[in-house]
């Protein structure tokens, strides 16, 4: 990973809007209705080749840790991912390549200094959010991070690819390969 990309992935998921993905930092919105397509399951690529100057996020080193509404995943190569649940259908996902907790930022550092847009209604500490406490299930092949009556995020133990599901188990989005 390039050092300049301190926050590789900043993802906001709300179940009231359509699925959207933008340039880094990535923001994802999710539709509450099932996606109308022939196949909503993404096939994982068997060979992941990183772009020049980048690496892929490594596999989780251990079970994610929950502290209040925040889940921290420590990865084999030292990276850390922080998932902050703000509502049962809203979370932010931040990744730090160097794994230093103090490097997590309120806002991601854009790749281009001219990009200054910030799409957040409230900061994470706002009392406007209910901040549900997630639970972790250590299942075969994945860690499932979920909140009651809300979304669940599956993190693959093999390669850290993620799948976001609605409370009914339907897939909102699924990564084809790990974040780089």
Explain this structure.
The protein is mostly beta strands and 180 residues long. The protein is 0% helix and 31% strand. The protein has no helices and 12 strands. The strands form 3 sheets. Strands 1-7-6-5-4 form a 5-stranded antiparallel sheet, with no helix packed on it. A 5-stranded antiparallel sheet has the order 8-9-10-11-12, with no helix packed on it. A hairpin with a 5-residue loop joins strand 5 (70-74) and strand 6. The termini are close together. Mean pLDDT is 75; it is low at 1-40.
Distance between the termini: 6 Å
What structural category arises from helix and sheet content?
mainly beta
Overall average residue pLDDT: 75
Sheet bearing the most strands, described?
5 strands, antiparallel
